[in-house]
Amino acid sequence: MKKIVLICFGKLKTPGIEDAVAEFTKRLSGYTKFSCVEMKSTQSPEKDEAMILELLQSQSFKNNHARTPQVWALDETGKAMKTTQWSSEFTEIQDRGSGELVFILGGSYGLSEKILKMSNKLVSFGPQTLSHELARLVLVEQLYRALSFSAGHPYHHEG
After folding, report:
1. Residue 64: helix, strand or coil by DSSP?
2. pLDDT in tens, the chain (159 residues)
3. Spatial CA neighbour of 102 closest among 73, 78, 122
4. CA 150 to mean position of chain CA atoms
5. How far is residue 86's CA from residue 78's CA, in Å, rounded to a whole number?
6. Chain-centre distance of CA 14, in angstroms?
7. What are phi and psi of 6, to 5 degrees?
8. Pick from 44, 47, 91, 98: which is nearest to 70 by CA?
């Protein structure tokens, strides 16, 4: 995977979670160019939508992407996937697509219907509700796990 961008709302404030996200972000650098765009939530999915669309359509964002990246939104209505499925999807994007992926993690009020519909894939971490910070940690760990699995690294053990 060439590049992964995470668009999310809010800063990490919990020290243990902040450290863990930093650690997995550092580990990701061995497999992909990873960046995170933290936005301030408006407490309204529709207003947050405008900020997301403005970012995705901005010239600076477009200049940093060779082709149109895949957009995956994290949402409770999405599909839960095994690590091996994440890995296969990433390989497909790398081989047949732009090799670039944008994740959108909404604020505490979720994502607007328009953002969900424009996304190439909706992904869920299961039926439970996670805090924004915890969902972000789970995402970066899962990205690391799937990419290291693709590279043949022994980090992932499935059983």
Report:
1. coil
2. 889 999 999 999 998 999 999 999 999 999 999 999 999 988 889 999 999 999 988 877 877 766 778 999 999 999 999 999 999 999 998 888 778 899 999 988 899 999 999 999 999 999 888 999 999 999 999 999 999 999 988 776 665
3. 73
4. 17
5. 13
6. 20
7. -110, 120
8. 98
> Using the 8-state DSSP alphabet, how is residue 43 labeled?
S
User: CATH classification of 3-150, choosing from 3.40.1280.10, 3.20.19.10, 3.40.50.10260, 3.60.20.30?
Assistant: 3.40.1280.10
Residue listed under structure tokens 């910070």: 133
Q: What share of the chain is helix, strand, coil (3-state, %, to 5)?
A: 45, 20, 35
* 118: amino acid identity, one letter: M
Give Dmax over CA atoms of the chain in angstroms: 45
What pTM does this model have? 0.92
Residues 147 and 151: their CA atoms lie apart, in Å, by 6
Identity of the residue numbered 22: A
